[in-house]
Design goal:
By secondary structure, this protein is α/β, with parallel strands linked by helices. Helices cover 26% and strands 34% of the residues. The strands form two sheets. A nine-stranded mixed beta sheet has the order 2-1-3-4-13-12-11-8-9. It has a four-stranded mixed beta sheet with strand order 6-5-7-10, covered by helices on one side. A hairpin with a 2-residue loop joins β12 and β13 (172-175).
Length: 197
């Protein structure tokens, strides 16, 4: 059985991510135990709240090096995805630098922040993370900060401007939306992460 480990970042959405895997029939464990994280088959890096607070939690829990040196597939969700970049202007904090890119406040186009609700996602054709998901499917977002499209972007969405809905580099993957709150499309994406990545 695939060992799925949700890294305990001390953020609030950990149990909802675990329940999403439970519904799919996968067992996932929430832990900050470095040995369990290192021996997992798949890793999840969820996060809500501010980048500065989340990085401090990871520092306090001595998780940063373990995350940076992970060799198994890792999926960052929402803030977890943003932490995979080099820098977040939310609190001006250095992030995990798992891939290039910066997280910045969504540019002001007159739309309210946070960007909250269902939005279309357009992904790179044939990407295994989006297998079996229709192009331009809707996913659920809640965020004020975003990673603007760069060389690691594998899916985009738009809220006044285009931004990265999903990024990937080597064994690291990130989604800006909440798959655990995105109905059947989100469930399919989590299943793809376990079975296809």
């Amino acid at each position: 059985m695939t060992q799925i480990t949700i890294i305990d970042t001390g953020c609030a959405n950990l149990s909802s991510v675990k329940f999403a895997f439970d519904r799919l029939g996968f067992q996932a464990e929430i832990t900050r135990d470095l040995n369990k994280i290192q021996s997992a088959d798949k890793l999840l890096l969820p996060g809500v709240g501010t980048a500065a607070a989340a990085m401090k939690n990871l520092q306090d829990r001595q998780l940063i090096d373990t995350i940076r040196h992970a060799t198994q597939p890792m999926l960052g969700i929402c803030l977890g995805m943003q932490l995979m970049t080099e820098f977040s202007s939310e609190g001006n904090v250095n992030a995990l630098s798992l891939m290039s890119g910066n997280t910045e406040l969504i540019p002001n186009t007159g739309l309210p922040l946070p960007h909250m609700g269902w939005n279309k996602v357009r992904y790179q054709a044939d990407h295994p993370l989006f297998a079996g998901i229709e192009q331009d499917s809707h996913f659920y977002f809640v965020h004020s900060y975003a990673v603007l499209p760069n060389e690691n972007t594998i899916a985009t969405s738009s809220y006044g401007v285009d931004f990265s809905a999903s990024i990937a580099n080597k064994n690291f993957y990130g989604v800006q939306f909440h798959p655990e709150r995105s109905g059947k499309n989100g469930s399919q994406l989590l299943r793809n992460f376990v079975e296809n990545i």
